[in-house]
Amino acid sequence: MPSNKTQNPILCADWLLPIASPPIHQGGVVIEGGRILAFGKAEELCRRFRNLPRQDFPGGVLMPGLVNAHTHLELSLFKKQMALPNDFVSWVFELIGRKIQLTDSDLESSVRRGLRETLTAGTTTVGDITNIPRSLSILQESGCRSVLFREVLGRTGEETVPWMEKVAGELHSMEARAGERVTIGLSPHTPHTLSEERLKALAAYLKEKSLPYAMHIAESEAEKDYFQSHAGALKSRLFPVIGWGNTPDPEAFGTPFEHVRRMGLLSDRLVVIHGVYLTSKDLDHMQEAGARVVLCPRSNHFLRVGTAPIREVLQRGIPVGLGTDSLASNTSLSLWEEIRFLRDRFSEDPFITAERLLSMATLGGAEALGLADKIGSIEEGKEADLIVVECRGKNGNELAARLIEQTTSDKIRMVMVAGEKLPLQ
Ligand SMILES: [Zn+2]
Predict the structure, then answer these.
(1) Residue ranges making up the domain that contains 77
(2) Is 2 a member of any domain?
């Protein structure tokens, strides 16, 4: 991997799209030590930094790399393998059945395959959920930036104290190996796949640590039913089959999010994934605590679970990113396709603009993952995580809409993390 300390040329393109400020015609970026030293009009930069060579991308738009804030790269081998499910629980059964047949080596090649697809789509950061130790080194070797969330779950089995010690030990060793581009996080899988005792132990652990943590919350009606009435498809169909038929139900009734809050897991480091069934009251609590959310619209559509309250989340100023989720519930890992899906779905809503969608896919994702001080926009001092996208026939006003309309993986001309170009193969 070449050092990011090597001198970068001034990158110049037809348009510079910083996200946090208006587009600049004939713009450029100066990089030093992997970070953005300056950005602005290319001509001015070339005068100011006359010792630096320049590299031009004619017909290109230079912008921050996309942030795919929720993936399970280890499930990438399931691309186009899963049948359209009748309902959420049927899909869970199919997923479990397929997953137990995979070896660690299958899962590792799955991560590699998923990463390739992710990077070639112009994504430079992933929020990935993992169950295999090798994910960390595979991510490091790729050069991609990531928050790697170690997944934990279980309502039965080992006593909570030794279980928690094991989890803490593993996270500690992952943190020791993480390096600059990987942030280690924890993923308590869902409110219904962990016992109350384990959820409380995780909450106590997370209070002591500064780790980000991501949890699938309020994804399906089945989950909502379980917490509201301790009944429904999870309780009657799923739990008995996987050996949780006799596990105790939560002590109280409420929404899945209320359960998470009652267990002590609400904080400004909580990343709520999906949030399809978040209520206004849940959102009040999230807003107050500074919690974040990652929406996965195509996955929700595939699983037929409903549509998340995107407008309400945006209007409240809750940090919101986008994720593709895994290829077990989506057709691609391209965030451009995720944005296009939202554009079409909300075409009648003037609030969901092309600019807002692009912002969610970059700065919003960075905020959701707790990385907004480093990435997500072109600003001085931020890491040079940049992409160049070929985009024809645009002017400043319609730049975002054109990018969303036109961008496919074959239009990605360059992908760079911390000033280092990554191979697009
Ligand atoms: Zn997921």
Answers:
(1) 66-368
(2) no
